[in-house]
Amino acid sequence: MNSPRPRRRWAGPLAVVLLALAAPTGRGPAGATTVPVTPAFVPVPAASPVREDFDGDGYPDLAVADGHATVDGRRGAGHVTVLYGGPDGSSPMGAGGRAVISRATGGIPGAPVAGEGFGSGLSRGDLDADGYADLVVTTAGTSDAVIVWGGPHGLSGATSVPATSVPATSVPAATARTGDFDGDGLLDLVLLRPGHGDAAGGTEATVWTGPVRRTGVPARAAALDPGGLAHAGVVGGATGDVDGDGRDDLVLSAHCGAGASCTYVYRSTATGPVRTAGHRGGPSVAVGDLDGDGYADVVVDAGAGPGAAPARRLDIAYGSAAGVGDGTVWTSVTPEGPVAQGAGVRDGGSGAGVRLLDTDGDGCPDLTVAALAGRAGEGSLRTLSACPAGAVRDPVQGR
After folding, report:
1. Nearest CA to 191 among 214, 213, 167?
2. Contact, 178 vs 127, CB < 8 A?
3. What are phi and psi of 356, to 5 degrees?
4. Whole-prediction pTM value?
5. Local structure of residue 349 (DSSP, 8 states)
6. pLDDT tens-place string over residues 311-350
7. pLDDT (tens digit per residue) in 5-51
8. Rounded-to-10 torsion of CA 306, 13, 253, 331
9. CA 28, CA 30: separation in Å to the nearest integer?
10. Are 332 and 279 spatial neighbours (Cβ–Cβ below 8 Å)?
């Protein structure tokens, strides 16, 4: 077995992303962003890329997205609320500790549009290698995603990032994931633009190799699995080092036709991510080290099975030096017991989602599953401790 590798923080991939808790004092006016002074572009690779600290004060920050929010009277335009970490704990209403970012914010391209869902997806990390984490905000529609840039005064200014480099097209990105896919210590960005409907038009996917300049130009760009994703509508994903080679691997969840959901695993290589496995199930995935062996594992929310009182099923592929491939055995567990019939079930899955987060502070990610009740708006969270006794602490966690 490989020796333990440098550990990295987890990252949640969906519309509500917890980057950390706590808020500071003494920053700019709440709800406002200013056009930044762009620093000299001197990328500095790091052993662990900055992922959570937008203002560089050493405290991780919290971003909460609400793609349904009303902005300037436009319902569903969407916004993101940022709470900056600090030594005084959580103080979201403290002076300067809270900022709201939307299309109405200065320095953010575009204007609020009803139903756009700005903030429907979030991803983050230091994309321009200046030592400050940046925030990638995607939408629910066909609008461009934006990178909101970090700096000494927090997030400010933004650049549109349409997936137009490879292949050449005017179709924008609707989903984004960050990760160090080539192992050089610099974060890279995957931009994904799925077609409308159930896998209609497939997904255009592009890998932007970091660093990404503030002009929106990456070091290089390449198409990701154009043949394989031609008939799959990607709806989400996660990243983490599944095979222990120092590169982040990519896991995508997608609608793959006929009402079905599928999960695709891509192993990162020197030439880019390569698909190594497909699994029936989704559409929610998480990546993190469940068993404390130093390899990130893949968790798929397979939803509820048939029957009057179907059990919720999670499918797990455990990471190893061989990675996750078509020969990998998936383990199925039912963490929450029966679920109510008709509770949002579609293709055997509610899509409520799974998350990996160290909720008890023991250094191991805990598996959190949303348990839906029979009526809309009702539900609960069920959390399972993930690390076995004697497992390696502070394991590799997914992003």
Report:
1. 167
2. yes
3. -120, 120
4. 0.74
5. B
6. 668 889 999 999 999 999 998 887 654 333 332 222 223 3
7. 333 333 333 222 222 222 333 333 333 333 333 333 444 444 455 67
8. -60
9. 6
10. no
